[in-house]
Specification:
The chain is built from five helices and seven strands; from the N terminus they run ββαββαβαβαβα. It is an alpha/beta fold. A seven-stranded mixed β-sheet has the order 1-3-4-2-5-6-7, with helices on both faces. The longest helix is centred in the middle third of the chain and has 17 residues. The protein is globular and about 45 Å long. The structure holds guanosine-5'-triphosphate and magnesium ion.
Length: 196
């Protein structure tokens, strides 16, 4: 798949506003500030396709990008510590849950976690849910550039070991948007999901 061809499609406040539920979608999910939007930009080689920010909670809508007529990438709102009013937070956490539960074209979930804070409760809940729904999961340990190579290898092995407990199709790789670390691996996994 040529990921550079990605173009912005829509920003949806809820699943009713999404493009027709057909073809294949791969969604990027994870805690606020984990690096989801940055990873999408790295994958598509476009600096400002998805909006990134130092402020957690930047992505509050379900942003959709088209790769071709029947393949899409999805940037989901983050969960966790977003500094937004509770009412707003509840609204978009609800649309996130709804998207994950109802979207038929969702064929694979990328779960991004800051390598310095892996496998928080909500990450584990999300992975468990995906496995229960027979959805393949690619866990990306993001901002790998923040750790020395020995330290990041150690965490990679620990998270791979812990991921066996989910008993599902869960792959774990290191990733960095800063130095493109892990980009080839991400493309390989996504290519197989989009091929189906
Ligand atoms: P929300 O939309 O708020 O849920 O956040 P997000 O998961 O989309 O995170 P985003 O991509 O906006 O990145 C958050 C912050 O982390 C920004 O300041 C990025 O520049 C930084 N960041 C993202 N990826 C990397 C990385 O690989 N390395 C480093 N050093 N910083 C990164
Ligand atoms: Mg974002």
């Amino acid at each position: 798949i040529n990921y550079q061809r990605a173009t912005f499609l829509t920003s949806a406040p809820d699943i009713k506003a999404l493009p027709a539920d057909q073809g294949i979608e791969v969604a990027f999910a994870g805690r606020s500030n984990a690096g989801k939007s940055s990873a999408l930009n790295t994958l598509t080689r476009q600096n400002s396709l998805a909006r990134t920010s130092k402020t957690p909670g930047r992505t509050q809508l379900i942003n959709t990008f088209s790769l071709d007529a029947d393949r899409r990438l999805i940037d989901l709102p983050g969960y966790g510590f977003a500094k937004v009013p509770l009412a707003v937070k509840e609204k978009w956490q609800k649309s996130l849950a709804e998207y994950l539960q109802k979207r038929q074209s969702l064929k694979g979930l990328v779960v991004l976690m800051d390598i310095r804070h892996p496998l928080k409760d909500l990450d584990q809940d999300l992975i468990s849910w995906a496995v229960a729904s027979d959805l393949p999961v690619l866990v990306l340990l993001t901002k790998a550039d923040k750790l020395a190579s020995g330290a990041r290898k150690k965490i990679l092995l620990e998270v791979r070991e812990a991921s066996m407990a989910f008993m599902g199709d869960v792959t774990v790789h290191l990733f960095s948007s800063l130095n493109k670390f892990g980009l080839d691996e991400v493309e390989q996994v996504l290519d197989t999901w989009y091929q189906a």
